[in-house]
Amino acid sequence: MSPQERLTDALYGLGWSTVKKLPEPAAVRLGQTVADLAWKKRGKGVRRLESNYARVVPDAGPERLAELSRAGMRSYLRYWMESFRLPAWSEERIRTGFEPKDVHHLTDGIASDRGVILALPHMANWDLAGAWVTTKLETPFTTVAERLKPESLYDRFVAYREGLGMEVLPHSGGTAFGTLARRLRDGGLVCLVAERDLSASGVEVSFFGDTATMPAGPALLAQQTGALLLPVTLWYDDSPVMQGRVHPPIEVPPSGTRPEKTSVMTQALADAFASGIADHPEDWHMLQRLWRADLDPARPGPGGTA
After folding, report:
1. Cα separation of 196 and 198, whole Å?
2. What is the mean pLDDT of the chain?
3. Burial of 32 (0-12, 13-18, 19+ CB in 10 A)
4. pLDDT recorded at residue 12
5. 285 an active-site residue?
């Protein structure tokens, strides 16, 4: 393990061991302070966040983009403060900490026993949404986690999410898809953060007017298992309660090849994500490159590259 990896692991360990013991108002203040310091420093992540917001809000000038990126960093740090504290939250705090709209799409799907896939972008606090599902709805689910470096940090995240009632599979290794399909065929629930493609086999979609690549997994799982595919978007307001919406199901097209069906369904997923992100851009925590033009150094996107 390199010195940088040891430091990263130690900082996350400190967060889970110390931040969860803070009173909530103190944790909120700490998160805002750290966010503002990071925003003023304007490092690579902040510049990329601002560049991504330039695509989401194309008519925003520099002042508006700066406001958005500051709000975005505060939202991002709220996610971390909540996540560090979630293991210490009471069941009642979790049950009342999230108020999703149109949740009947999810509860009806669970009751149908056909299997349900929830697909989310990196908005607000997807871990809190997951804890609400396992606690309020008393429904366990399976998810996939990116293998982080160092390995000890990945192990921390797996232990954290398993402690919230989730089954966590590694993204790499090639066995996750088969396990997810089995869970769905058994009538289970699968939750996937799904707007950033981590493979070389993603699906091209139009996203805020330009080409991006998103994972094929949610659409392929729905086709292969007959499970319901539900987009979900999340956001914060000025209260301690996270907000969200379960969007209507994305249906499998009645005709076409598997790649054609996958393309149509993944585009519909991207459109649902875009609607939620456009309404609450500051709660989309995308500090990495996403669009094809930004991944290709020869074609810099709005705001340049970071």
Report:
1. 6
2. 91
3. middle
4. 75
5. no
**Catalytic residue (choose from 50, 105, 122, 285):** 122
Which whole-number Å values give the CA distances from 285 to 44, 94, 122, 176, 203, in the listed order?
14, 22, 6, 25, 21
Q: What is the spatial distance between Cα 176 and Cα 171, in angstroms, rounded to a whole number?
A: 6
Identify the CA nearest to 2 among candidates 150, 178, 153, 203: 150
166-199 pLDDT tens trace: 999 987 766 899 999 999 999 999 999 999 987 7
Residues of the chain with pLDDT under 50: 298-306
Dmax over CA atoms of the chain, in Å, equals: 55
Q: Which amino acid is at 2?
A: S
pLDDT, position 173:
61
Closest C-alpha among 134, 124, 114, 148 to residue 239:
124
- Per-residue DSSP letter, 19: G
- The pTM of the full predicted model, rounded to 2 decimals, is 0.91
Distances (CA, A) of 117 to 106, 181, 226, 227, 285: 9, 10, 10, 7, 22
CA distance 53 to 153: 29
The answer to whether the beta carbons of residues 168 and 144 sit under 8 Å apart is: yes
CA 89 from centroid of its chain's CA atoms:
21
Taking each helix axis from N to C terminus, what angle separates 44-56 and 24-41, rounded to the nearest 10 degrees?
90
Specify whether 195 is catalytic.
yes
pLDDT computed for residue 174 by the predictor: 67
Residue 240 amino acid letter:
P
Whether omega for the bond prior to residue 25 falls within 30 degrees of 0, making it cis, is no
Taken in order 286, 291, 292, 297, the sign of the CA dihedral is negative
Q: Catalytic one among 195, 247, 282, 285?
A: 195
Give the total residue count for the chain. Answer: 306
Q: Tell me what pLDDT residue 43 has.
A: 95
Q: What local confidence, expressed as pLDDT, does residue 1 receive?
A: 66
